[in-house]
Structure formats: structure tokens, C-alpha cells
Specification:
The complex is a heterohexamer, with 3 copies of chain A and 3 copies of chain B. Chain A is an all-alpha fold. Chain A is built from 17 helices and 2 strands. Chain A has a two-stranded antiparallel ribbon. Classes of the chains: A mainly alpha, B alpha+beta. Chains B and E meet through strand 2 and strand 7 of B and strand 1, strand 2, helix 2 and strand 6 of E. The structure holds adenosine-5'-diphosphate (3 copies). One adenosine-5'-diphosphate sits at the interface of chains F and E.
């Protein structure tokens, strides 16, 4: 990757401090005061799009999939996580992720946005905008995990878990990959969060599902989604919002943003198509839940690759994502009988893993119609790049798994993780929030 | 007086109501129910979890009539609700001791 | 495609034909490699907005109008069309529409985005962005037709039909009007798709409704919308998304974009008001379904005119749209007894026709408070312009009608178009997808 | 209005008062004809976001809170207000608010956008864009009042009331604060509508609730929201849309926009947290309705302050908003027994009042971690600024109260304000619109 | 024992429940139903398709009581549910042979 | 023939249905109802308005059986629906005069 391309990645902040790019450094120092209104406009917009993914996008996507007596609890979890993580992001998480520090975690120099003024820039956009854009990622990641423990976790345990997880898992890993940490230095390609968002959320989901245990009746009792129209509505919002997630990760309104959006869309389409075909093959009919699940698989899988691969590669990635995540979902549920309620691990986790690996393949500029836009700096072959990608997946996955387990054990010392059986039967909406979703 | 409870296929409601009206029956109460019987349900599929839904949507009609209108009502319903296919439903007939019209307090046949 | 032709996209007609701005031409030729981040930001955003119109906007708008047993089938149709058309757009449709070719269809030189890099520009935005923006139009057009055959078409027939229709109807007509084809050369004013989107979708809807036949029970059995709150939600999204549809068609963040958004909004408002008034006149009460239908009529009708007319003209266009489409809907349904399930033809088709014609009137700069911003290049009177507009409507309408009919006949050779009567009674959700919308 | 004054719209306060940037002034005067595509892109986007707040955001937020038999009436009110106010904005309201006139109201020189062309600029964005952005504020303000009289007002009375209110309350007060009027001249800091939007809507809600009287059965009959999932969906849209509301009020894509978005988000988060804590304290459990109400309180309260305060101040503002509005809601409902159906006054009114006052405190650059970005021009202490803020609140509140009362009395001369008791029992959907929300 | 089935207007539920409670009746089951009778329905309008809805929302209350409480229950319901307007509904009374409390297996009056 | 109406807790439906099926009962109609009885409801809270919900979600099963199957059916239901906690519900048994199968017009036991 040449120095021009290097500027096109996520965290300019970091490049100034760490990557030793003299030209961009100069730009950073001398011309950094040149704000680009166009780039700023796009990242402001992207921030809105990514928040929209969580509220109401993901909340609806998940909310529709649970039983009618638990729908509000899911919405509440997404809202509460958003509020609490946002405040934590201001207080210290942003600084832990993006301020100068060690290879493993940033410092606290930017706690409470210390020193940031109206004129502070991060690259050519205001630092406030960079802060906000990154915050929306820090919000959606723990919100994704909600799907694993839905319909049985106590509200206060959920909140405590999410807080600790954001501090001890999200912020450090974000620093490793985007904040100048060791994986970034190693040349890991993760454009918009294959490891930072999807591997971490997916592994945490798996661990949480195992630690929490199954919902009563699983897998014998049928648990149809209470409102698939709500889920599909959320899915549409996720698709659109993902344009900000991946397209915004270019941190500017440019060719990389456009191409990232394009490959994101194509991969989502590929996921819809291949998941649907798998259903037709196995059950004879395609379902809309299958279609939107394939979409999420395609979107999650392209995420790490989105700034590096071309349209042909994206199509393959999407098609592969739909097939692999389809099998993974069936395997986890029907063979391993793990009750990851809303299939977070097989879709996001597996998608994040294979996407990060495939980014190392399809970034290669020498694959003909499946070519991408080049390896990380200092890397010049698919095998070296895939090796780095594998290290990234293993490191983030392992650390997440261990830390998530530890956090759950700590939380369990303070409050039970699960509601009582009676509360589970009555539903979390009444038992945790004294509310009912519908009086139609 | 007799209470006629008829379980029918939902899309037959209009036909039955019209036929009853034409037959001179001007009171009817309808509840949405799910039925389990010979008629097969269907399978549903949610992300690899496939299961059999045994229950089928039905409507339960409640109709209270004078004793001498009983057979006519049954006849009308059977005819209007019939499709000849499994799942057309049942009619249950039982005795009603008393009927009261809430508005007026009238009782018996007058209350119908 | 040379750099001159590259400008020949979408609003080329307008820039060249109307504004006679040699500087912008020069810029196009000499400085085309200068990317505008501001314009790019707006078209990235517009792309998101137009996708949002389909997913979940249109899906909800239509989904709420059908019976509860068919709601998922409509959502599934919108999702599947999005996925499949997107992939086709990449494979060849984009090239057929926008690469150099004949006056009737483009070539395949841009199949799989052959030759397009991160730096390729289309005007002053990345070509990837132009590709994506245009793709969202190619998605929504067949999705609009869904309304005509809702509640009775087989899923596989629907998919096959949509694919063939996109290839043989949408792509060529898009080329005629925006890709440098014969209608563009003739000076047809169609800013954002009066002919390309609404006339084609509307005529196809009419033909499909006629060929498919009525839903069982039509028009005697009452078929109230199963969820008007869903329809109104979708309507709100359509209104907002249309800002990207028409505003984005300026292909930049400028006065034309602003004015296009403004007239779009005013026309939508006019449509709401006049449709509501018609209902008050005829039935004594205005309905919310009437209001949102008037809104769509106003939006569809202003679409071709949106870059060319002023606020006064837009208000008239909206008011007229509400009245004419109101009568058209009643006529089709109650007099002709055609079962165009969700009234696609009388709203979109009729709106597209009268809007394209009125664009030729209200673009005139000599109408006082109802003035617009000028005729196409080489045209200097309302009558000449309206003549061109009429040719555009007739040509696109006729071709669409014939081709749609032929496509339906071909599809019918492969698979029945309709589900069986039992399946129709049971509902498409269960019969086609083994799912249920709600378990409340 | 001369070209200097023309710049004195909305963000003028900020530019002059705070930044003391002669260059930007000069740019305004000399180079005002230079359109900024980046700024334009962001305000186009913000316009879409703010419309999205009303349609479908607010419509859903409110619609979910009423009974199932009244849901469409609320949606219809939001749609109708949007359509009618938009047309009025074009015909004369924009001119009354933003064209040159007296200190109390603008003139009619811009009626029908007289003289505005494609090239007309307002600052460095097209005037059409400024017109549209401001219009979305004029729409949402009367739409907010809908919450006060929900479930009992006649449709025609509602429409007439909204029209007169927009003319006699909104347009003049908008001129006072943003159009160069007396409050703006006095140095009132109201970045995005604490007085113009929230105080006016809140006070009007209170007056309307008192004049209309209680819904039958209030407060004895339980009236649970018919669909909290709808309300939460709307809440998510409001949160995202508010980024355009406050962020767009910078009228550009710059550091002020970024910081306004940031403080908006932090305050919303603070409101969620503190309202939830109040519920835990008082009832033992937090509810999702409480969370989203706290969110609206946080958003409404930060609105006037959003361009002036820093992150620390915003956090305090949000936390305070949640607590104060919580008590206000309980007090109005349970002590005063005023039937402001959806709590518009205690949330928006009270939030707008305390937010406007707190803007005067937390704009101070001398509060350490709670510092803001400076006072209005010519003001140099918290006490002087708070004095001006208090004058602004009192003036706008008093005028709104009196005028709203008078308008209601006038409307009552023409048509009864309330539906009959039977119609109220049957529900407004059937009685006013002959429609039903759901046939599930 | 007697089974009392009362069809009432939905907004009367609270009143009826409260009155029954005060009258010493502590068991009640309620179903949402649609009624067709003398009370007119309303018209609905959807894009030029206007039609008559004959059915009106009602609630059906089921209440099983000892024989000697029958008349009291009827009286209470009639009084609490009455608005004097058409559509107030009906009460149907029939005999119940046996009652079982599932929790305990108790039968007869004790099970109520 | 006898009509058995059983009010049960919703999450017990599958168990009851399965038990009945195994016991040889192949027809059943289910309605969603709300019950009021000894079982406490819960409180709900909406922006400072807190109130008591007395009604609890229940299902009402209707099952018509031959006279000699009556006790077996009751037994099965009692066993399958029992949780031992308040609110398990009741069974009401009454007489049915006639049953008709709509599809065939058959009557009496054959119609079941
Ligand atoms: N013994 C029964 N008791 C109560 N309801 C019954 C009984 N048998 C059937 N039903 C109801 O009648 C419906 C139709 O019965 P089914 O056996 O499917 O078809 P058919 O009546 O045509 O033989 C069932 O769905 C159920 O609601
Ligand atoms: N014969 C009947 N059988 C069953 N239900 C009836 C009968 N007559 C009336 N109903 C129910 O009672 C309700 C009220 O009856 P209606 O004739 O409208 O008014 P009223 O009871 O005041 O004369 C109806 O909506 C219907 O649900
Ligand atoms: N007398 C009655 N008439 C009709 N339904 C009743 C009666 N008593 C109880 N029920 C129904 O049975 C349900 C369970 O009754 P409840 O008193 O709560 O518990 P249990 O049956 O365990 O004593 C109630 O919710 C109600 O639906």
C-alpha cells in the first residue's frame, strides 16, 4: 500500500502519530488546519447512519425476533447501551482507544475530550466528528451481543456486563487495530471492523450464550419471531446504515468511500442470494428471514475488506458469507445445541472471521476481475497478508473470549446473570420494566 | 333457546353472515380461534429451526336462537361454510336457559 | 467512454442543454479529474436515501396495504429484487445503460465495472458513486411493479420476471433518456425518472395486472390494509428518501439540488392537500391513506420536472397530481375493475405521464410566478418542448407495454405466474416462504 | 435587509458573538457568491434528517402512545401539518420569518420565494436549501403540539388551529430570534430552537390541554400506549434526526456542526440515564418509555445550547433535563391533573426553558471541564447572558400563551374543538377518517 | 352451577369487573369478539373502495357461578354494562355440569 | 356429548395438546382470553401513571367429546396443565345436544 492509499484508512489520528508517513505528517502539521467541508459533511452523515443502525435498526432487527413478551427488553437494552457507552466514550473510552499510549491501550490524555476545541482536526475533519463517528462503533458492538443473551438476562447484569466489556474488551482492541496498536503496526487490514466489531461481538456472544445457559424449553419449544415485519424493517435500516459504517470508514467523501459503499452493497446482495439458495436447496423455499440473515452475513463479512477489495471480490465474499454462515447457524443450533438466541456468533462472529481472512486474499491486485487495491504497506503477497489477518483474528478472538468469560464471572458475583424462571415465563418486559409491547 | 357454536374457516365468514342474514338471523358473535383437528397445519422455518404448526386459524361463531329456528340455522351454516375440504369445521348445539338483553333487561325470546 | 461522454450522464441534458455553461463543460473536459468532496458527499448520501426508499420504505408502504397473510411476501419481493438487480447492475446492466453504445442501448465495455478504479470519475464524483446512485433507481423501478401483482404471484415467477424486465426494459430505456440515447439527444426533459422510472413501472403494472388477472374475490370482498401504520411509516420514508432521488439527480450539492428538493417537497405537499380535498368532497372525510397516496402522486409527478420547474409550478403540479391520480385510481378500480392491487398504474404511471408533460410546460421561464428554469437546448417554446415530452412518454410507454407483455408470456412458459387458489387463500407468506408475519 | 443582515440568520449569533472572525464576515460580504458544496451537502442532508424527525419519527413516537383506535388520527395530523405548513411557508411564512421587516416580523418581499433563483445564496449555501432547512423546523413545531390534544380534537379544528398558530406564533417568534428581530439583536443564544421550537410548542401544548379539557376518564382510566415498539422506533428516529436539527443549525459542515452534534448526543444520553435512575429510585425498575422520554428531554434541553456549550456542560444539561422533566411530568399529571395527553409541556416546554437558561451558563468559557465557547457579542458574564436568556424565555412563552389562547377561541367560533363523546369512545380513526389502524 | 356469558361493549369492562368484584364474584374470563346485531357498524374507505363494516368490537365475559348466585350476577352485569344505547349486548345463561380447579383437582362449588 | 372448556396458562398449551393427542383426542379449539381470579396481575408504569393490571393472559380450550370420554379428557388436562401455582385455571363441563361436521353433514359422535 503506498502512502497515498494509506491516508484512506480509518484513523488518521493514528497515522499522524504512529505510522511515520512524512508527507501526511507534514500535511497533518502544516495543513491540518485545512478543514474539508465535503469530507466533514460525509462523516457527519455517516455518524448519523451508524447511530441509525443501532437505533432503531438493530433494536428492531433483534426485537422482532424475540417473543412478544420480551420485545421491549431488547429495545431497552439497545437504548441503554447507547446512552451509557456514549457517556463512557466521552469520559475515557475514546482516549483509551485513540490517544497515544502503548501498543496495547491508549492513555487518558483525551479523557473528557481534554484539549479538543472547535478547531481541533483529525486529518481534515473536526476531531469532534471523528470522536462521534468512532463512538457509534463503540455503541453497536456491545449492542450486537444482546442477541446472544436475549430473553433471559437481568437488566442490571446486562448493563454492568456491557460497561465492563466496553472498557476491557472494546477499547483496547480498538486501539490495537485502529488506534496505533500492535495489530495496526503489523499491517492488519481491517477497514471497518471485521475484528474490532464482528469478531469481538461474535466471540463474546458465544461465550455469553454458553455461560448463561439455554432459554427454558430450548431447543424443543418453537420460538417463532413475534414480528418479522419489525425484523425486516430493521434489516433495511441496517443495510442503509452500513453505507455509513463502511463508506464512512474512508473518513472522507472520495473514491475509497464510493468503492467501499459499492462493495458493501454487492456483498450484502450476494449474501441474500446465497443464503436464499441454501434454503431452497435444503427446505424447498426461501424465507424472508433467511434473506435478511444472508444480508447481515454479507455485510458483516465485507466489513473488514470493504476498503481493500473490488466489486468482483465483493461478490464472491458475499456469496461465500451466505453459505458459510448458513451452515454455521445450523451447526451451532441443531448440532451443538448452543442457545445463542439470535445467532450472533454464526452470523457476525463467523462472518467477521472469514471476512478478515478473505480481505487478505481479495485485496491482492493480481486476481483479474477479482482484484483488490493492494496489500498493507511492507506486505507483498497473499500468504503474508493472510498470515497477518489470521494473527489478527486469533488475537482478538482469544482475548475477547477470555476477557468476556472473566467479566461474566465478575458480574455474577454482584448480581445473578439470569432472571428467575417465573420471570422468564412472564417475560422480561413485565418483569424487568413493568411495560407491555402491544395493546392492539 | 339454543346456542349454536360453529367453527368455520375464516374466509367463509362473509358468506355465512350473509346467508344467516337472508335467513332472518340478526345476531351473531364471532371469535378468532385456533383449531386442531384432522386438517393438517403447515411447517414454518426460522433460521434452520423448522417446525410443525398444528393449529389452523378458525372462527368460532356463537348464535343463540329460538328452539324452532335451530335446524334452519344449522342448515344455513352448513351450506354456507362448506367447501368439501377437510377442516370445514364443526357445529356444537347446546341448551340455553335464559337470555337477557342488557339494554332493556328483556328476557327470553324477546331478548334475541 | 471519453471524458465528454462521461458528462453525458443523467443531468447532462440539463447542464448542456439548458444552462449553456461553457465553463462547466470546460471543467468537465479539462478538470474532470478534480473530485469535489462536497458533491461526492451529497451523492453518497443520496444513494443511501434512495436505497432507503426501497428498503424499508417502499417495502413497508406496500406491505401495510396487503393482507396480514401476505405481508412477508411483499417484503421478500422487495428484498430479493434489491439483491438480484444489484448484482445484475454490476454484471452488465450499468454498462447497458451508461456505457457507449447505440442510440438504443449501451455496450458491455463496463461489465463488471471493467476499467473502473478508485480514481475513476464521472463528472466530479467517483464513478463508483455514480454507479451506486443509478443502481438504486434500477432497484426501485421493478420494486414499484410489485404493487400490481401483490397477493397472487409466485415467488419464482416474480423473480424471473423482474430480472428479464430489468434487462429488456429498464436498462435500454435508461440508456435512451440518461445514457446518451435517442430521447436524450432529442431534448427530453426527465430530471429524475418520470419516464425511466414511473412511466415504465406504471405501464408494466397495468399490463401485469391485466395478464395476471384479479385476486380471488376482487372487487367484492373487502380487502382493508392490514396495517396502515406500516404504510404511513413507509410513506414518511419515501418522502424523505425522495429528497435523495430528485435532489441527488443534480449529481452535486448545488442550487439545482436545493431547488429540486424544494419543488419535490412542495409538490408532495400539494398532492397531500388536493387528494385529501377530493376525499372530503366525495366522502366527507379525509383519510390518512388518501393523504399518503396523494403524497406519492405529488412526488411521482414532480420527478421528471424537479430540476426544471420553480416553486410556483411545483405547487400546481402537486395539486394537479392529487386530483388526476385520485380520479384515475377510482376509474381503474371501480369502473374498469382492473385489479392493480396497490394502484401502481393510476398513481405512478399516470403521475409519471402528466409530470413528464407538465415538465415541458412549467420549465418555461416566462410564466411569471409559475416560471421554471428554461427549455432543453435548441428548444424555445412550450409547444416544442411538450411535443418532445409527449414523444418520450409515448415511446417509453409503448415499448414498456409491449416488452412487459412479452416477458410475462415467456415467464409463463417456464412457471405459472400465479399461485394456486388454495395457496392464495392460505396466503403467500406460508405458501411461498413458510413464515408468518406476526405472533403477537 | 442588507447583505450584512442577511448573514444574521440563525448562526449569526455564533459567528459574530463568539468567533469574532472578521474574515468570515468579509467572506460573507465579498465572497458570499461562493457556494460551498461541502456545507451545502450537509444542510441538504440535515434537511432530510429534520423532515425525517416529523415523518415518520414524531408521528410514530406519538402514534405509539395513544390508543389503538386513535393511532391513525395522530399520523394524519402529522402528515397534514407537514403538507399545509410547507405550502404556507412558501406562500409567506418564510418571508415573515426571514425577510427584512421590523424587529417583530419580516415583510412579504420573499413571498412565493420572489426573486430567488438557482444561484441565490444564503451565506455560502443556496437560499433554496436554507429555505428548506428552516421549513422543517416550522413543520415540526406545530406537530409537537399534537401531543397535547391527541385523542380528542376534531380534524378540521386541528388543521385550522395549526395554520393560524404557524402564522401568528411561529413565524413572528422565528423572526425575533433568528430573522434579525429584537431578541437576536439583544444577544439571545438559541442555537437550534430552545425558544423558537420547544418553548413555543410546550406553552401552546399547556394552553391547548387546558382549553380543550381532559379526555373522558382521565386520570382514572388506564391508557397504556397501544404500541411501545412504535414509540421506541420513533424515538430512535428522533435521536438520529436531531443530529440534523442541531448539527445542521451550524449551517455548514465544520467544527461547530461537529461539536453541536456531539453535545446533542451526550445530552440525550444523559437524559436517558437520569430519567431511568429516577424511575429506579421511585418505582424500582427502569422502563423503556422512561428511557426514551429522558432522551427527548435531553435532546430538547440541549437544543438552544448545542452550538455554545462543550461536552462537559452537555452531560450536566442532559442529566439535569432527565430529572427536572421527570418531576415536571409527574407534577402536571398527578398533582395538577392536567391532561396534556403525551406530556408535551413537561418534556418540551420545561426542557426548552431550562435549556435556554442553561445555555447562558454553560456557554461560559471559564467553567473548567464544563466550559463552553463564549457569550454572545457584547456580553461578558454569565449573569448578563442568563438575563438575556430569561428575557427570551419569558417573552416567547408569554406571547405564545396569549396568542395560542386567542387562536383557540377564534377556532372555536368556527368549529367545535372536540369531537363528540361518542366519537371519542369510538375513536378518532373511524370517526374522523373512516379507517382502522390494524387488521392483523 | 351456571355459566353466564355476557357480550358487552369493550369500554364497559372496567365497570363490570369492579361491580362484580364488589358483588363478591372473584372469577371471570374475557374474550375479544366481534358482534353483529342491530347496532350499525360503520363505513371504511380505502382509496376509493368504500365498504360497510357490519361487525362491532365486543367483549364476551364468561362467568361460572353457583346456582343461587345466578340472578345476582345477571343483575350486576346488566346494571354495570348498560348505556341505554343499541348494542349494549346480551347475556346467555346455561347449565354447567361440573367444574374442576386444575391446580388442586377440587370439583364443584369449591372449585369456583 | 360433553363440552369441556378449560382455561389454562398459555405456556401449557403444547403439553396439553400433546397429552390429549396421546390420549386419543384429535379435535380441539383454542381461544386467547384474559382471566381475572385469585392470581395476581401485575403493575404497569407509563410516565408516572402506574396502575394495576388485574387480568392475566390465559387460553380457553374447547373440546367436545363423547360422554364416556369426559373423565379421561378432564384427567389428562388437569395433569398436563397443572403447575401447582395459583392461576392454573378451571375446567367447565356442560352438555352438548348435537354436533355436526360441516364438511359432510354427519351428526352425533361420528361428527367428532
Ligand atoms: N372434538 C372437537 N372439539 C372441539 N373442536 C373441534 C373438535 N374437533 C374439531 N374441532 C374444531 O374443528 C376444526 C375442524 O376440524 P377438522 O378435524 O380439521 O376437520 P373436519 O371438521 O372437516 O373433519 C378444528 O380445527 C377444530 O377447531
Ligand atoms: N342471537 C344472538 N346470538 C349471539 N350473539 C348475539 C345475538 N344477538 C346479538 N348478539 C350479540 O350482541 C351484540 C349486541 O346486539 P345488538 O342487536 O347490536 O344490540 P342490543 O343487544 O342492544 O339489542 C351483538 O353485537 C352480538 O355480538
Ligand atoms: N368463576 C369463574 N368463572 C369464569 N372463569 C373463572 C372463574 N374463576 C376463575 N376463572 C378463570 O380461571 C383463571 C384462574 O383462576 P384463579 O382464581 O386465578 O386461579 P386458580 O384456578 O388456580 O384458583 C382465571 O384467570 C379466570 O380466567
Amino acid at each position: 500500500m503506498n502512502s497515498l492509499n494509506r491516508n484512506k484508512m480509518k484513523s488518521f489520528t493514528f497515522f499522524i502519530g504512529v505510522v511515520l508517513a512524512p508527507t501526511s505528517l507534514l500535511a497533518g502539521e502544516l495543513g491540518a488546519s485545512e478543514l474539508s467541508t465535503g469530507n466533514t459533511a460525509w462523516i457527519l452523515t455517516s455518524t448519523a447512519l451508524v447511530l441509525f443502525m443501532t437505533l432503531p435498526g438493530l433494536a428492531l432487527f433483534y426485537g422482532g425476533l424475540v417473543g412478544t413478551k420480551n420485545v421491549l427488553s431488547v429495545l431497552m437494552q439497545c437504548f441503554s447501551i447507547t446512552a451509557v457507552i456514549s457517556v463512557l466514550w466521552l469520559i475515557g473510552l475514546y482516549s483509551m482507544a485513540f490517544s497515544e499510549g502503548t501498543a496495547f491501550v491508549g492513555g487518558l490524555s483525551k479523557a473528557m475530550l481534554n484539549g479538543v476545541t472547535l478547531d481541533s482536526l483529525s486529518g481534515d475533519i473536526p476531531e469532534s466528528v471523528f470522536f462521534m463517528f468512532q463512538m457509534t462503533f463503540a455503541i453497536i458492538t456491545p449492542a450486537l451481543i444482546v442477541g446472544a443473551f436475549a430473553e433471559r438476562m437481568k437488566f442490571n447484569a446486562m448493563l454492568l456486563f456491557s460497561i465492563l466489556w466496553a472498557i476491557f474488551v472494546y477499547a483496547p482492541i480498538c486501539h490495537w487495530v485502529w488506534g496505533g496498536g500492535w495489530l495496526q503496526q503489523m499491517g492488519l487490514l481491517d477497514f471497518a471492523g471485521g475484528t474490532v466489531v464482528h469478531v469481538t461481538a461474535g466471540i463474546a456472544a458465544l461465550v455469553t450464550a454458553l455461560v448463561m445457559g439455554k432459554r427454558s424449553g430450548f431447543p424443543n419449544v418453537a420460538r417463532p419471531p413475534h414480528n418479522l415485519t419489525m425484523t425486516v424493517t430493521g434489516a433495511g435500516m441496517l443495510w442503509v446504515g452500513w453505507f455509513g459504517f463502511n463508506g464512512g470508514s474512508a473518513l472522507g467523501a472520495n473514491g475509497t468511500a464510493g468503492m467501499a459503499m459499492l462493495v458493501t452493497h454487492i456483498s450484502a446482495s450476494g449474501g441474500v442470494i446465497s443464503w436464499s439458495l441454501m434454503e431452497v436447496k435444503k427446505y424447498g423455499k426461501p424465507s424472508v428471514l433467511g434473506a435478511v440473515t444472508g444480508m447481515v452475513a454479507g455485510l458483516g463479512t465485507i466489513t473488514p475488506a470493504s476498503g481493500f477489495v473490488g466489486p468482483g471480490g465483493a461478490l464472491l465474499i458475499g456469496l461465500i458469507a451466505g453459505v458459510v454462515c448458513f451452515y454455521a447457524t445450523n451447526y451451532i443450533k441443531n448440532v451443538l445445541h448452543i442457545d445463542d438466541s439470535l445467532d450472533v456468533f454464526p452470523v457476525h462472529g463467523v462472518g467477521g472471521i472469514i471476512g478478515t481472512l478473505m480481505a487478505g486474499i481479495f485485496c491482492s491486485p493480481a486476481l483479474g476481475v477479482f482484484s483488490g487495491f493492494g496489500f498493507a504497506q511492507g506486505i507483498d503477497s497473499i500468504s503474508s497478508q493472510v498470515y497477518v489477518q489470521a494473527v489478527g483474528v486469533l488475537a482478538t478472538g482469544t482475548y475477547t473470549g477470555v476477557a468476556t468469560f472473566a467479566i461474566l464471572k465478575v458480574v455474577a458475583l454482584i448480581t445473578p446473570l439470569r432472571v428467575s424462571e417465573d420471570e422468564e415465563t412472564e417475560g422480561l418486559d413485565i418483569s424487568q420494566h413493568e411495560e407491555r409491547g402491544y395493546y392492539l | 333457546m339454543k346456542k349454536i357454536e360453529a367453527i368455520i374457516k375464516p374466509f367463509k365468514l362473509e358468506d355465512v353472515k350473509t346467508a344467516l342474514k337472508e335467513g332472518g338471523f340478526f345476531g351473531l358473535t364471532v371469535a378468532e380461534v385456533k383449531g386442531f383437528g384432522k386438517q393438517m397445519g403447515h411447517t414454518e422455518l426460522y433460521r434452520g429451526a423448522e417446525y410443525q404448526i398444528d393449529f389452523v386459524s378458525k372462527l368460532m361463531l356463537t348464535l343463540v336462537v329460538d328452539d324452532d329456528m335451530r335446524d334452519k340455522a344449522i342448515e344455513i351454516i352448513v351450506e354456507a361454510a362448506n367447501t368439501g375440504k377437510i377442516g370445514d369445521g364443526k357445529i356444537f348445539v347446546s341448551s340455553v336457559e335464559e337470555v337477557v338483553r342488557i339494554r332493556t333487561g328483556e328476557t327470553g325470546s324477546q331478548a334475541l
